[in-house]
Design brief:
Mean pLDDT: 84
Low-confidence stretches: 1-20, 49-77
Helix content: under 10%
Largest sheet: 10 strands, antiparallel
Order of helices and strands: HEEEHEEEEEEEEEEEEEEEEEEEEE
Radius of gyration: 18 Å
Number of helices: 2
Structural class: mainly beta
Bound molecules: 2-acetamido-2-deoxy-beta-D-glucopyranose
Strand content: over 45%
Length: about 290
């Protein structure tokens, strides 16, 4: 599909920026059931054909557009007070901090969904990415980690993968992390400066944990805390948005520089018109559904 020109501009800006950045470096370690995994068995590979998940929410922003989504009655939805915003590709909660008290750490669990071809959509691949990250909404860099389901063609065969990305550097697939529909994942992104962080992803069902220690990333503003299901980008455009079972994020919080905790209540609640709705449940739990 054709990308909005703002997105295309952002993409070329990101590609240019990439050439002048200090080189992102990292070390990686993992455990299986608490036992260290030999480094040779932890496989990272470039995220397939991707500029990755580097588009900020660039969709329509009117309340009228948002009014058509997010009104489905759900059993667990007792509260729906967050300000609604719409996006071309982000669905979920973004909580904003200030430059005088930046985000230090973000945490959450989410359940990797069951994905299927979306009725009436003939664009392939179709995909849906669930992730937790810092920045990318009111700032252009973004550090994020999560999973993606991807349907390459009309056969409807689903591939499930884990990945991380420090935008504008390319996304990386954690090829040795098991990912199945229904598995729960825990993400912790712990910044040690604007340009370094320790990020971890644990498959809580298989007890597989991967921790990556990153240095020399592009400077983060550390002002947005994101819990998102995304319509990701592949190649030169957005993927078709796969249908996915309701995705819950739980124990969601960010920790600020002064030690205070930031939750979901008051977050900007992103919706993708015709693609995904999301709502907060309480200060630590939200869900997104297609
Ligand atoms: C969100 O971040 C932007 C950019 O720093 C800032 O202008 C705005 O005031 C912030 N909003 C809140 C509610 O903190
Ligand atoms: C369709 O996608 C599946 C899963 O990636 C792949 O194994 C298969 O070869 C693809 N089929 C065609 C006809 O491209
Ligand atoms: C985050 O990193 C700091 C060091 O900057 C460390 O003291 C702290 O234990 C880490 N927190 C978690 C939850 O890993
Ligand atoms: C991450 O790497 C830096 C050096 O690049 C090191 O100083 C730091 O101790 C490492 N942190 C962890 C948690 O391994």
């Amino acid at each position: 599909m054709k990308l909005p020109s703002a997105v295309a501009l952002l993409l070329s800006a990101a590609l240019m920026a990439q050439q002048v950045q200090a080189k992102l470096t990292w070390t990686v370690k993992g455990t299986q059931n608490g036992v260290p995994i030999p480094p040779s068995e932890i496989i990272l590979k470039p995220f397939e054909a991707a500029y990755g998940h580097n588009f900020g929410p660039s969709g329509p922003t009117t309340a009228a557009a948002a009014a058509s989504v997010g009104r489905v009655a759900r059993n667990r939805m007792v509260k729906r007070a967050n300000p609604i915003a719409t996006s071309a590709n982000w669905c979920g909660s973004v909580r904003n901090a200030t430059t005088s008290n930046r985000i230090k750490l973000i945490h959450g669990y989410f359940q990797h969904p069951t994905c299927t071809k979306r009725a009436g959509v003939t664009t392939y691949p179709q995909a849906a990415a669930s992730w937790i990250g810092i920045d990318g909404d009111s700032s252009t860099t973004l550090l994020q980690m999560g999973t993606v389901c991807k349907i390459d063609n009309s056969t409807g065969i689903v591939r499930n993968e884990a990945w991380w990305q420090w935008v504008p550097d390319a996304a990386m697939t954690l090829a040795s992390m098991p990912v199945h529909a229904g598995d729960w994942f825990q993400v912790t992104i712990n910044t040690t400066s604007a340009t370094s962080a320790v990020i971890s992803l644990t498959n809580v069902n298989t007890l597989t944990a991967i921790t990556i220690n990153l240095s020399a990333g592009t400077s983060l503003a550390r002002i947005d805390a994101d819990w998102i299901v995304e319509r990701p980008a592949y190649g030169s455009g957005l993927a078709g948005f796969a249908s996915f079972t309701e995705t819950w994020f739980q124990e969601a919080y960010a920790t600020l520089a002064n030690g205070a905790s930031l939750g979901i209540l008051g977050a900007k609640q992103y919706q993708i018109t015709g693609g995904c709705s999301s709502a907060e449940y309480d200060n630590a739990d939200l869900s997104a559904w297609s």
